[in-house]
Model the fold of this input.
Amino acid sequence: MHRLDRDTRGLVLFALDNDAFRALDVAASGGSFRKRYRLTTDVDGSGLAGSRPLLASPMASLADRWKKGLAGSDATSLASMLAGVTIESRFRPFGPGGRRVACARADDPVALRGAAGSGKAWTRETYCTVVSSVTADGGRIDAEVELSRGFRHQIRAQFAWMGLPLVGDGLYGEAEGEFSLVAFRLDFPDPESGEQILVSLTC
Done:
């Protein structure tokens, strides 16, 4: 029912038959199939090539404070600004062979033209990642995030876009260490009864 990037660990949901697939697909479209991830980021402030803008803050009103926090590698300040925010963007393939994606703000005029079929092919829809909890751990940030509809590399690209590439992510940051993205909880309606089911990793 959803995919994990090759190095991402954790839970994946499979439908056992076509009826279950269709029911879960409707649930995903309606926002009642939710996925939660744990991650750890570095603080490098470099942004994401091909994106609009190159470096984003989690909210436009935080832009100056966000850049100051990145410049000082102030993980505690950055974590406080991330708590409870929703990161929203459009995407487009980027780089050789489209291996990566770039991000754009939902209201970016160039991306809006691309979404309408003029210029580079930005997605028509926007995709949201909700930061549900966040803490600073030394010079890094630990977070839990949730999404319902997902796009390829969504979490990885959006955090790199904010200057916070995931630890161990050689595609959007540095490859040192274990890739720090874990799908640890799935929340979805039972295809037959409609009762909401929650599955969570305990480790």
